[in-house]
Amino acid sequence: MKQVLEQLGLTALEIKIYTMLLNEGTSSAGDISQKTGIHRRNVYDCLERLIQKGLVGYMKENSVKVYSITDPSKIVEKVNTLQKEVDEILPDLQQKFNAIHGKKETLFFRGKEGLRMVLKDQIKEGNEVLVNATAVRVSSILHYFFPKYHLLRKENKIATRMIFDESYRSLNAEELRKLPLCSVRYIRNFNKSPMAQYIYGNTVAIVVWGSDPIAIVIRQKEVAQGFRDAFEVLWRMSK
Question: Are 130 and 218 in a shared domain?
């Protein structure tokens, strides 16, 4: 619970007071100070902020303010409000980000989660994905995510073309035929390494597949076009 409250922007003292009220029910500022060990002045400051955040309320008993937490569903309301505020400013943030980073950008990812981000980026881009394929059976590395990835490709009508080394025709042809919107060709003496290239939009992702895969993502129109031109030459040569 502490981590959730921290993510909502509560300070350590606010969390301590909120938790104490959660357990005790109702308390005066004096009782809170005594039970938490927090200076009375700081208790008042924290209570005021918690009230402003809608997480704590108070009532008067014999002219003394007695504090208690509000309905915990207020936390959900706060998260929803924050999400709406983020959604409102996100387009402007994205526009400014693209203006700065849209032309050239190089990113490095390590691990399976990083590779999932690369594949999700292909879906977000929404363009055809060209693949200079690897000798590694990548579906075994991202076993649970790959079916979802291909389903998302199908839903978003994102086609892919793949080139494999000729020696892998007998090993993966049947499996690849089942993939949606997928065209596959083979070429002799092509690529028997664990490295693959994914070209989509203005992006090239160079991936080294393995138990701890890595990826270098280059966002630059000229670089992507160069890789795309090379792919098309190989595509015409392959069968």
Answer: yes
